[in-house]
Design brief:
Mean pLDDT: 79
Helix content: 40-55%
Shape: elongated
Keywords: ATP-binding, Chaperone, Cytoplasm, Nucleotide-binding
Number of helices: 40
Largest sheet: 7 strands, mixed
CATH class of one domain: Mainly Alpha
Family: Belongs to the TCP-1 chaperonin family.
InterPro entries: Chap_CCT_beta (IPR012716), Chaperone_TCP-1 (IPR017998), Chaperonin_TCP-1_CS (IPR002194), Cpn60/GroEL/TCP-1 (IPR002423), GroEL-like_apical_dom_sf (IPR027409), GROEL-like_equatorial_sf (IPR027413), RNaseH-like_sf (IPR012337), TCP-1-like_intermed_sf (IPR027410)
Protein name: T-complex protein 1 subunit beta
Subcellular location: Cytoplasm
């Protein structure tokens, strides 16, 4: 505050004091005042200037004098500042000239020549500034010192950047300079924690003597030591592939691994160099020699060269000359070939005018010209690949992508040449006729080149997984990557915000954004209590759609008559090692555990489909997933979900209309209807394990359904599975078989059976209090207790025997004593009959199940004409014949393994369901993708008449329908694009009964082939898939409740 007050007094009073570098300076004597205080300043004026004219001046004169003194001081200060500014500018200019001399590889003495030119230009443009240019020092010594200073500065900058590198890669190349001195060049490329990439020439080391692996390794070590590069930060070393570089013992690679064991460096051969070396697989030396000879003929003779250039100028050619071939330049051959091809007509005309046609006869030779055209085209393709891989800021995954694309192109080229298709060889295509032998040679050459690419780039294939992690981290299987990356990768893939960012921004920018702060800002805000989770809007919708698509992709390969099977392995406590082999969609979805809520919806619709019609469980889930896949594309186009749902509803109406118009009802003709039932059973079995014997099992299923007499309850049909034999040993029995046998000393055959079916305990009573015990003090009391129990059990048996029964079947265990009582009474007693078997037995015998002994007097007994013990394989079973419910029957399945029997039962159950559905509703529809194509075409026609964005949703619905025949073709190993296109064309021509014949791999008439399905199955598929897709598209939020916390049980056992 004292300083501010003093400064205010000085300014207001007009004293001749000025602040210079935070010190008060007297303007009269130019002396500094020691302390910036009012007393010190006053004392200075009293002691130094008391008798001066300054005291006699008025206030106005004093202010004028102060202003004059301030101007003088400013003039003196600016003079020195101006001199300093000019000198700094001259030094800066000297550095700029020295930098350009070094960059353009000019002589150091050229600086003096540059200065002379600058002064002469200055004399013309700005003579008054000549003195400024004179101060720029550009002598040889100055330029040398400037370049050395720039070198030190750049080195220090590079060392500073290297110190910040988290990872870096080194590229090495050893070659000779013009003085035949071997030079080892090291390039470094590194990335810091902010993903800032630096790519620089690290150093160049001279190899004075030999260039063995040990020499290269020594210079490599010294170069890294100079730049202070940590070995642990090196993740990749790229070499030129020479033996002294890649030798595993005495080469650089071997010495590096020996001296730095456990390093994580990946060694690669330079991709651009490899690409150039791959040309060695081509037999192009005769063509190359002829082209080089022609070029040398033109350029080596001065007169001929001048005349040729004048000739090109006279005909207004695009090019003015041919190019020399240089072997050490990788792109030279392609450039020379292309230039000669462009000028070939001019070259021929030129030599004809000179009457030297022998010099260019190669360009008129019909045998040589196709080879020249082929290699010119191929070298142009390779030239483009090489150029793509060059330049700064190239990532290794981009280079590998270019290489993989070129390998695919080579396969495409070879395949097209085999078909005489020269689409991608324009120069070869311009030649009128190329014989087949040459085309075969060209095809072989392309295959050899492809093999060479595969062989030389194996080191890139070895790191394919690592490249995939960087290129598309959201599509990588987490289980296939290193364990230290798995958790981080899962976190990344689960964040839909980051996935959207990855798709919308450059790759490098995306990884820059993955800082801790950015990740924290992207984390959702939790408003729910405890550990509850919430996904909103697009995240929730995408989660549902992707989960549904995953279910569809899982089931897709099982669809159709040639679909594949899945093995389900259960590792639960009660079923460890249990294996299921199936291609049934409902069974697969029941057997797998899904966590995604939308995936659970698909599981439910598959179960409903199985319950309603018994078939189409795979189709409904796959169709729904295809609808959602198409809907996802529309969502990316910013269509609202409600618009898509509305379009799907309209499309479903049109699809069902088309399905109804092309359905058939031939139940009025009994013979035709029976044939339709047989065809429906065959069609249903064609995609099952019983496909090989579909005629045999189709007839068996029809016979079983006929016994139902149009009853839709399949409980009257019993399945018995017995290991042994083969599938064709299976049979249909007209009675009811129970997989049990009578008790000991009981009758094995019962005529006119009167059956009591019970679900009651037939053992000793138990005290049902946890931890209770009964203590007896003598053996006699134990005998008395057993006697009481036997009396109670005898009373229970007597109550049953009062009904004059001769067969007793119990759901629970029958102990020895009651079993003996039943044997003494001549009653067949059967224990532990499974609950489902007891239910069916009560149904077919007309009896009721007794649970309470007190009301057993009012129970209804079952009956049958005969019960006998039969043998199937090596097992004994009970057969019930002459049942009051005539529709009952048993299908006995035989097979080699339990898995085959289980899948055969599921297949027959599906067939029985579709047959029962057809009997109750006799409409049929065509299979083989025919109805899907019909519905798709109807929906597309309606979409073309519909205005607005709903038409896009309808078109998407149609594309989803057409995916069903496409998937069926793919699963059969056929060309889906060809067959589906032919099918669309056939329907457009009015052949609306045509579908896919998967036996012969062509389209055919489904009605004639008998490939038909129940109308209700198709209708249920459309309804279920559409409703499920609508339900999932409506979702804009997923809330997961917090898991219930389990309190530890501290009670004593």
């Amino acid at each position: 505050m004292e300083i501010l007050r003093t400064y205010s007094i000085i300014v207001n009073s007009g004293e001749s004091i000025k602040i210079v570098k935070d010190k008060p300076v007297c303007l009269i004597c130019n002396e500094a005042v020691a302390v910036f205080k009012e007393y010190n300043i006053s004392r200075h004026f009293t002691s130094k200037h008391k008798n001066s004219n300054y005291e006699a001046m008025s206030e106005y004169e004093r202010k004028q004098n102060v202003e004059s003194l301030c101007k003088k001081l400013s003039g003196r200060q600016n003079f020195f500042k101006k001199v300093n500014t000019i000198q700094e500018a001259a030094t800066h200019a000297s550095y700029i000239v020295a930098y350009n001399i070094a960059k353009n590889n000019k002589a150091l003495s050229d600086g003096e020549f540059v200065k002379q030119c600058m002064l002469q230009v200055c004399d013309v443009l700005c003579p008054d500034k000549k003195n400024n240019f004179q101060t720029v020092s550009l002598s040889r010594k100055t330029v040398t010192s400037r370049i050395e200073a720039i070198d030190k500065n750049l080195t220090s900058q590079l060392e500073s950047k290297i110190g910040q590198f988290k990872f870096c890669s080194i590229a090495m190349d050893e070659s000779n300079d013009i003085n035949d001195t071997a030079q080892l060049v090291l390039f470094i490329r590194g990335v810091d924690e902010n993903f800032e990439i630096t790519e620089e020439l690290a150093c160049m080391r001279s190899l004075k003597g030999t260039t063995k692996g040990c020499d290269i390794f020594r210079e490599f070590q010294e170069g890294l030591l100079t730049l202070k590069v940590p070995i642990t930060n090196i993740c990749n070393i790229t070499t030129d592939g020479a033996p002294n570089m890649t030798g595993k013992r005495s080469g650089f690679l071997g010495l590096f691994n020996q001296n730095y064991p456990g390093n994580n460096a990946v060694f690669l051969h330079c991709g651009i160099h490899q690409d150039a070396l791959c040309k060695s697989a081509l037999i192009m030396k005769p063509v190359l020699d002829a082209v080089v000879k022609l070029v040398n003929t033109i350029r080596s003779r001065r007169l001929t060269h001048r005349q040729f250039r004048d000739f090109l100028q006279s005909v207004q050619s695009e090019y003015s000359d041919v190019l020399y071939y240089t072997k050490v330049r990788w792109l030279s051959a392609g450039c020379v070939f292309e230039r000669v091809w462009q000028l070939k007509d001019g070259i021929v005309s030129f030599f004809h005018e000179k009457q030297c046609s022998a010099e260019c006869e190669m360009l008129e030779d019909t045998e040589y010209l196709p080879d020249f055209a082929f290699f010119t085209d191929l070298l142009c393709h390779m030239h483009n690949l090489n150029v793509k891989m060059q330049g700064k800021n190239q990532f290794i995954d981009d280079i590998w992508t270019h290489l993989k694309a070129f390998k695919l192109k080579l396969n495409l080229f070879a395949g097209q040449l085999a078909k005489n298709d020269l689409s991608h060889f324009s120069r070869l295509n311009s030649i009128p006729s190329v014989n087949e032998e040459k085309l075969k040679n060209y095809e072989d050459g392309l295959k050899k080149l492809h093999f060479e690419f595969e062989r030389r780039f194996q080191d890139f294939s070895a790191i394919q997984t690592e490249l995939d992690i960087f290129t598309m981290p959201f599509n990588v299987n987490c289980e296939a990557v290193r364990s230290d990356l798995q958790l981080e990768l899962i976190e990344l893939q689960s964040n839909n915000h980051l996935k959207q960012s990855f798709l919308n921004m450059p790759k490098l920018e995306f990884y820059k954004s993955l800082s801790k702060a950015a990740a924290a800002s992207l984390a959702p805000v939790h408003i729910l209590k405890g550990d509850a989770e919430e996904e909103r809007r697009e995240d929730a919708r995408l989660s549902c759609i992707f989960g549904s698509i995953a279910i569809g992709d899982l089931l897709k390969s099982t669809l159709g008559p040639k679909g594949m099977d899945k093995i389900l392995v259960c590792d639960g406590r009660s079923m460890t090692g249990n294996v299921e082999l199936t291609n049934d969609g409902a069974t697969i979805l029941r057997g797998i555990g899904v966590d995604n809520p939308a995936a659970k919806i698909l599981v439910e619709i598959s179960k409903v489909q199985d319950k309603e019609v018994g078939d189409g469980t795979t189709t409904v889930a796959v169709l729904c997933s295809e609808m959602l896949k198409e809907a996802d594309k529309l969502l990316t186009l910013k269509l609202h979900p409600q618009t898509i749902i509305s379009g799907f509803r309209k499309a479903a109406v049109e699809a069902k209309t088309a399905l109804g118009e092309h359905s058939y009802d031939r139940s009025s003709n009994p013979e035709q209807f029976e044939e339709d039932l047989l065809n429906i059973a065959r069609t249903a079995l064609s995609s099952k394990i019983l496909n090989r014997h579909k005629d045999f099992f189709a007839k068996m299923a029809i016979a079983a359904v006929k016994r139902l007499n149009k009853n839709t309850d399949l409980k009257a049909i019993q399945f018995i599975k017995k290991l042994g034999g083969c599938l064709t040993d299976s049979f249909l029995d007209d009675g009811f078989l129970l997989d049990k046998k009578p008790g000991v000393h009981q009758p094995k055959l019962v005529e006119n059976a009167r059956i009591l079916i019970a679900n009651t305990p037939m053992d000793t009573d138990k005290v049902k209090v946890f931890g209770s015990r009964i203590t007896l003090d003598s053996v006699a009391k134990l005998g008395d207790m057993e006697l009481v129990e036997n009396q109670k059990m005898k009373a229970k048996v007597d109550a049953f025997l009062k009904h004059n029964i001769n067969v007793f079947i119990n759901r629970q265990l029958i102990y020895n004593y009651p079993e003996q009582l039943f044997a003494d009474a001549g009653v067949m007693a059967i224990e532990h009959a499974d609950f489902e078997g007891v239910e069916k037995l009560a149904l077919v015998t007309g009896g009721e199940i007794v649970s309470d002994i007190e009301r057993c007097e009012t129970v209804k007994l079952g009956c049958c004409d005969r019960i006998e013990e039969v043998m199937i394989g090596e097992d004994h079973l009970l057969k019930f014949s002459g049942l009051p419910v005539g529709e009952s029957c048993t299908i006995v399945l035989r097979g080699a393994t339990e898995q085959i029997l289980n899948e055969a039962e599921r297949a027959l159950h599906d067939v029985l369901c579709v047959l029962v559905t057809t009997v109750s509703e006799s409409l049929i529809a065509l299979g083989g993708g025919c109805t899907e194509m019909l519905m798709a075409r109807r929906v597309l026609a309606k979409a073309s008449e519909t205005s607005g964005k709903e038409s896009l949703a309808m078109e998407a619905y149609a594309r989803a329908l057409m995916q069903i025949p496409t998937i069926i073709c793919d699963n059969g190993g056929y060309d889906s694009a060809q067959l589906v296109t032919e099918l669309r064309s056939a329907h457009a021509e009015g052949k609306v009964t045509y579908g896919l014949n998967m036996t012969e791999g062509k389209i055919d008439d489904m009605l004639k082939l008998g490939i038909i399905e129940p109308f209700k199955v198709k209708s249920q598929v459309i309804s279920g898939a559409t409703e499920a897709a609508e339900m999932i598209l409506r979702v804009d939020g997923i809330i997961k409740a917090a898991p219930r916390r389990r309190n530890p049980d501290d009670r004593h056992c």
